[in-house]
Amino acid sequence: MIKVGCCGFPVRREIYYQTFRVVEVQQTFYKLPRISTARAWREEAPPDFEFTMKAWQLITHEPSSPTYRRLGTEIPEKKRKDYGFFKGTEEVEAAWARTAEFATALSAKKILFQSPASFYPSEEHIRNLKQFFKRIGNLPFTYIWEPRGQWERPEVEKICTSLGIIPCLDPFGGTSVRGDLLYARLHGRTGYRYRYSEEEMKELIRTGEKYPNAYLMFNHVHMYEDGRRLKELLEQEG
Length: 238
Fold this sequence. Notes:
The chain is α/β, with parallel strands linked by helices. The chain has 9 helices and 8 strands.
């Protein structure tokens, strides 16, 4: 089964629901909305519509990240060292608890953790990552990790396999060792203004068909248009 969607709503939600059957919620990365918002989104969406979501940045990013400008809350200077990078602190644990609470209200079963390029493959960072996912355990979620920066593909897949989580890697870079689920975020191969060609979309379909379940999630300027084109190709080939 191949699902196509976007990272965020590029059009009004009522229009999006008519086009796609899955969305990755982005607001939850910057600032968690109220639980009532999660319930409202779940209620307004079609029964078979699926939400995935991006984990709160307080788990993955340190306060030096420019993304904290959208947090809406000032982090006290003496507490700044306690946030992000999957640290084993009360602050990160609290951020995870709120992320999980929102996901539950939204009925989101897949949670994506995107680490920044500054979270490079050091011994400390790898230890933080492993200890974090071991602590949060086997709740009713599928955990997905998208590293940025210097990580090598074999190292990411080895870590994910040992933790039982899903690597989110370039789908054009090969088939994942975790062959039960493909979760790909398509940022544009040369930048956010990229337009995927028909041949590239056919390659994405061929890659997705190797998995029992595949999520092809567009995250660039033309995500709505490219997502629709990929859906049309899927329908033609189906």
